[in-house]
UniProtKB/TrEMBL annotation:
One of its GO terms (biological process) is fructose 6-phosphate metabolic process. HAMAP family: Phosphofructokinase_II_Long. InterPro entries: ATP_PFK, PfpB_PPi_PFK, Phosphofructokinase_dom, PKF_sf. It comes from Toxoplasma gondii TgCatPRC2. It holds the Pfam family PFK. Its cofactor is Mg(2+). It catalyses: beta-D-fructose 6-phosphate + diphosphate = beta-D-fructose 1,6-bisphosphate + phosphate + H(+). Catalyzes the phosphorylation of D-fructose 6-phosphate, the first committing step of glycolysis. Uses inorganic phosphate (PPi) as phosphoryl donor instead of ATP like common ATP-dependent phosphofructokinases (ATP-PFKs), which renders the reaction reversible, and can thus function both in glycolysis and gluconeogenesis. Consistently, PPi-PFK can replace the enzymes of both the forward (ATP-PFK) and reverse (fructose-bisphosphatase (FBPase)) reactions. This is 6-phosphofructokinase. Residues 39-52 have a biased composition (Basic residues). Residues 215-470, 787-994 form the Phosphofructokinase domain. One of its GO terms (molecular function) is 6-phosphofructokinase activity.
Length: 1046
């Protein structure tokens, strides 16, 4: 009953799944519910969303129901996050099965049955999220969800298909057709065909389907992509539907597994473990290819020995080109075995009029867009940083274009446009510098810049440089001198020294330059800093930060779109193989429709190919690789809006991939091309809510569907927080266990110690006090890095003060606190910031300075002048230390303002006996754990990589420890452990090497290592080195020689 994720499962105490009853909140009246909803949700204002075009009434109605919202939960070994959001009233609600304890208060029921859907147990390879996804059932197109199938080809097909072969990238000139016919005489001339429901074949006069045993092999080739396991699942379910004795053979490690006859027989039990899971780790992938007729002969012998009716090859343009060669050979020597291809690549470079999307693209784009959206929120909160983001996609810029439309950055480089405009590297740097300076004049020292992984290879002059470098290195036995460059010397001299060294050191085994390893984002930053200096600007006034998003997206758990798409592709491949359609690629069209209305089809390899020439001038066939079309509708609508993105901060936060709810089935923009209004603030007059009073201007029209959905969520709070007569009362004393620390506290905080007497305070109901605190005025200021959830701190403070008729004063950072720049919070100010990331309404401080007496006095004057009863300071351990100093100063000066601290930091460096966790730690570690889980799956899918992951955490290793418990990597470094053992960096390297060697002996040349950001700061010998380096830099700075010292 888990069709399309309508049912939401949870884990009970006995590790079973259950769907709980409607929550108690559902008993509220309609009036109460309406009053609790935000303004933009009332009066029929809809939540803007982009979703599939729905089928007509009565068609797949069960597949079209709205599903409950789900938010992110962390991944386990190799999984994308899967989470549960707030349930809407009147719909089933996720929680543990607490029916047996319903008489207990809410907080006691939560203690009796703690929900931990977050990750797998420490010795379990599958998280509850993965288990729930394993049970999720994909939706088949109506043409496939039939008892029998037939193939339709010829004139009845629509004109769009005919046009695809006569114009555009699939059009083949007569001379190309002639060459292809010579290369593929046996498979040339096949026609495009579509799958349709067919008449049920009868057996023995009965109306049952004829039962035919089918034996099909499948190969995963090339880099992993989300949804590969669902291709296998679709094929497996198809052959089992034909006969229970049908078999799917999974060849291990790509085409090499076929040639060497390494395979596993797929059982129902094995298949069920991998349904809707990310990665290729079920069969592994490989980059083997057909190297001559000997490989073709071996593959044919293996297929013949296993009596295969078909061989399905899943891969990109190169893998499907190999499939075409196999199909040609099989057509002559083993016609009973049909070779069928399936288009796979997250780069999107198989896109064509017939292949509307390659599988994995949707999930990868959404994974990267989530991270870019988080960076957009980060810069809106701090307004101090430029993020340069390089997105995977070496051969084409489809991914970076999709991510740009999802997040609306300030500047985007499209490789194909750079090539067509014949732009040089200096042009790109100049364009970037123009943007940075223009935004500086607008008062904005922050921004987001996106560039594709293969940007360098699109720059014409860089192509010349790389070609000449390879020629020089080849002619001089790997030795290089810049003087030998004749055509590209000026480009070489323009490159920073670091990039020159990288080009020379990171070379392939053949000696050629590894262009893909050039960190383009770092290159652009270095050149930008030089350009700004040339223009008379000090680059130190900006902060530039590089990012590369690549392997994190290749093995994410597939989105609903990719899960359905891949399942349909696998099912279609089975139909084509059963019908003997050798030399065809399985495709699914009309992807902008509901999945039940998709059109499964097959297109001959030879109609998707063109003829290339190798280095020796010899012709060879290859599947057409599609680049971003500069005349396409998607690029044109992007050109309409990108100039508006430059100065207007129209950032959009897509959020994590959802598996249920109103946002779960949204396809990517590459499938459903948006309008220019969709990429700006929209044009719906009913959703024109804006906020112009904060540090950034926000418009509801720029919000993603998930952001808008989160605005409607009302967090659950303890009942005492809603009690107007609740007050904090002393409960018990708690002293420092260490006598020395206790003495230091008494010495440095005498007033604070005397005032509190080290009493803890509990919030309780006090029936003797009046419920209204007239004139209560509480201020709030963020003085640390923003952490997820701090916006709700401001919301919660406002709600509490509104309950007692008080006022909430929000200051714009420490400078706002000193200069008395503030916002007196009203309901309308918070409408667009509830349950959102960052602190975009009032911003945060960029420095800590409350330790100085001068600053403390200025803050005291502000508090007294504004008659503040309290000042709330959310922040990290350092911020809490500053809050303690400020409180001590206030008491010494007899200032009546109470200072209250709130532990808010993703580093969780305030956790302890009294503080179980800090605000933001849960959300941030779930984001990290999701990416690490994806990387773990990637390592297991192509077992040849070791991934070293460095996690944020300047002081403690809490993030690393939590993510390790979530994802179970192969080696985890806890900095405090090595520091306490007085170990050196050499010990760290030796420990990692031991694990690598041990796994190599087991035949596992892959793995993942987690490293805390502040590892070196905990190693005693490195502390000494860092102290000396700081001393050298300080001395150089005093002499004005900092640049030279650096």
């Amino acid at each position: 009953n888990l069709r399309r994720g309508r049912s939401l499962l949870v884990v009970t105490n006995d590790n079973q799944y259950t769907l709980s009853s409607t929550p108690p909140e559902a008993e509220q009246t309609e009036t109460q519910r309406e009053a609790s909803r935000p303004l933009h949700a009332r009066g029929g204002r809809p939540v803007r969303k982009l979703s599939f075009r729905r089928p007509p009434s009565g068609v797949a109605a069960a597949s079209c129901r709205e599903m409950l919202g789900m938010t992110r939960l962390a991944s386990s070994v190799g999984s994308q996050n899967f989470g549960f959001g707030g349930a809407f009233y009147g719909q089933p609600h996720l929680s543990r099965d607490l029916s047996s304890s319903s008489a207990f208060p809410v907080h006691q029921r939560e203690q009796r049955a703690r929900t931990h859907l977050h990750s797998a147990d420490l010795f379990d390879r599958t998280s509850p999220v993965q288990k729930a996804r394993q049970a999720w059932t994909c939706t088949l197109p109506a043409a496939l969800d039939a008892d029998a199938h037939t193939l339709v080809s010829g004139p009845p097909l629509d004109a769009k298909v005919k046009e695809a072969f006569e114009a555009g990238p699939l059009a083949q000139p007569p001379e190309v057709q002639k060459k292809l016919e010579a290369l593929f005489p046996a498979t040339w001339g096949f026609e495009y065909t579509e799958v349709a429901p067919g008449p049920v074949e009868v057996d023995g006069g009965e109306g049952s389907r004829q039962r035919v045993v089918t034996r099909i092999g499948i190969v995963l080739s090339g880099g992993p992509a989300p949804g590969g396991h669902n291709v296998i699942a679709g094929l497996h379910d198809f052959v089992k539907s034909r006969h229970p004795d049908s078999v799917v053979f999974g060849f291990m490690g790509g085409l090499d597994g076929v040639i060497n006859k390494k395979y596993k027989v797929l059982t129902d039990e094995l298949m069920n473990q991998y349904r809707n899971q990310g990665g290729f780790d079920m069969l592994w992938s490989g980059r083997g290819k057909v190297n001559g007729e000997e490989d073709l002969r071996k593959a044919k012998e293996v297929c013949e020995s296993l009596e295969l009716h078909g061989l399905v090859l899943v891969g990109g343009d190169g893998s499907n080109s190999n499939a075409a060669l196999l199909a040609e050979f099989m057509q002559v020597h083993l016609p009973s075995c049909a070779v069928v291809g399936v288009p796979k690549t997250i780069d999107g470079d198989l896109k064509s009029p017939l292949i509307e999307a390659s599988f994995g693209f949707d999930t990868a784009a959404k994974t990267y867009s989530e991270l870019i959206g988080n960076l957009c929120t980060d810069i809106n909160s701090s307004q101090t940083t430029y993020h340069f983001v390089r997105v995977m996609g070496r051969s084409a810029s489809h991914l970076v274009l999709e991510c740009a439309m999802q997040t609306r950055p300030n500047l985007v480089f499209i490789g194909e446009e750079v090539d067509a405009a014949n732009m040089c590297l200096a042009d790109i740097v100049k364009q970037t510098a123009d943007l940075v300076i223009e935004r500086l004049h607008a008062g904005k020292r922050y921004g987001i810049i996106l560039l594709p992984e293969g940007l360098i290879e699109f720059i014409p002059e860089m192509k010349v440089l790389i070609k000449e470098l390879n020629e020089v290195l080849s002619a001089n036995d790997g030795k290089f001198s810049p003087d030998k460059l004749t055509r590209a010397r000026s480009v070489w001299d323009y490159l920073p020294d670091m990039i020159q060294d990288q080009l020379m050191m990171d070379r392939e085994a053949t000696g050629y330059i590894q262009v893909a390893k050039i960190a383009t984002e770092r290159l652009l930053i270095l050149l930008l800093e030089t350009e700004l200096q040339k223009r008379g600007y000090d680059p130190d006034q900006w902060s530039f930060m590089p990012h590369y998003f690549g392997y994190e997206g290749r093995c994410a758990m597939p989105s609903n779109f990719d899960a359905n798409y891949c399942y349909s592709l696998g099912y279609t491949a089975g139909v084509l193989a059963e019908k003997g359609k050798n030399g065809y690629m399985s495709i699914v069209r009309n992807l902008d429709q509901h999945p039940s209305l998709w059109t499964p089809a097959g297109v001959p390899f030879t109609k998707m190919m063109y003829v290339k020439q190798d280095a020796q001038g010899k012709d060879f066939p290859a599947i057409v690789r599609s680049l971003v079309s500069l005349d396409g509708s998607l690029f044109k609508v992007f050109c309409e809006v990108r100039d508006k993105w430059k100065l207007k901060d129209l950032y959009r936060v897509p959020g994590p991939i959802q598996f249920a709810g109103v946002t779960a089935d949204e396809p990517c923009y590459a499938v459903m091309v948006p309008s220019a209004e969709d990429l700006l603030a929209g044009n719906d007059p009913r959703a024109n809510l804006t906020c112009t009073t904060g540090v950034v201007e926000k418009d509801l029209g720029t919000y993603s569907s998930l952001q808008q959905q989160r605005l409607l969520y009302r967090p659950t709070v303890p009942p005492l927080c809603q009690d107007a007569k609740a007050r904090a009362r002393p409960s018990k004393q708690m002293f420092c266990r260490d006598p020395y620390t206790q003495r230091q506290v008494l010495m440095h905080y005498p007033y604070l110690s005397n005032s509190s007497l080290f009493f803890l305070h509990d919030v309780c109901h006090d029936k003797y006090i009046p419920p209204i605190g007239f004139g209560v005025r509480i201020g709030l200021v963020f003085i640390s890095r923003q952490s997820p959830g701090v916006a709700n701190v401001l919301w919660g403070l406002h709600e509490r003060l509104k309950l007692v008729q008080g006022k909430c004063i929000a200051f714009f950072g420490l400078n706002g606190l000193v200069d008395r720049k503030f916002l007196q919070i009203e309901d309308r100010h918070l409408e667009l910031f509830k349950n959102q990331g960052g602190c975009e309404l009032i911003g945060r401080s960029t420095s800590h300075c409350l330790g100085s007496r001068e600053m403390q006095e200025k803050v005291r004057q502000t508090c007294e002048a504004m008659n503040l009863d309290g000042l709330v300071i959310p922040g990290s351990a350092f911020a809490m230390s500053e809050a303690a100093l400020l409180s001590e100063y206030f008491l010494a000066k007899q200032c009546r303002t109470s200072v209250i601290g709130i532990p808010a930091t993703g580093s969780n460096n305030l956790s302890g006996e009294l503080i179980e966790t800090c605000i933001g730690f849960d959300s941030s570690t779930k984001v990290y754990a999701s990416l690490i889980g994806n990387v773990l799956t990637d390592a297991a899918s192509m077992p040849k990589y070791w991934h070293f992951v460095r996690l944020m955490g300047r002081q403690p290793s809490h993030e690393v420890l939590e993510c390790a418990l979530q994802t179970h990597p192969n080696f985890v470094i806890i900095a405090e452990e090595y520091g306490a053992a007085d170990k050196t960096l050499l010990h760290v390297v030796q420990d990692i090497a031991d694990v690598v060697c041990q796994r190599a002996e087991m035949g596992r040349n892959f793995g993942t290592v987690l490293i805390p950001d502040a590892l070196l700061m905990h190693l005693p010998n490195m502390k000494i080195l860092l102290a000396e380096l700081r001393s050298v830099l300080k001395e150089a700075d005093a002499k004005g020689e900092m640049k030279k010292a650096q």
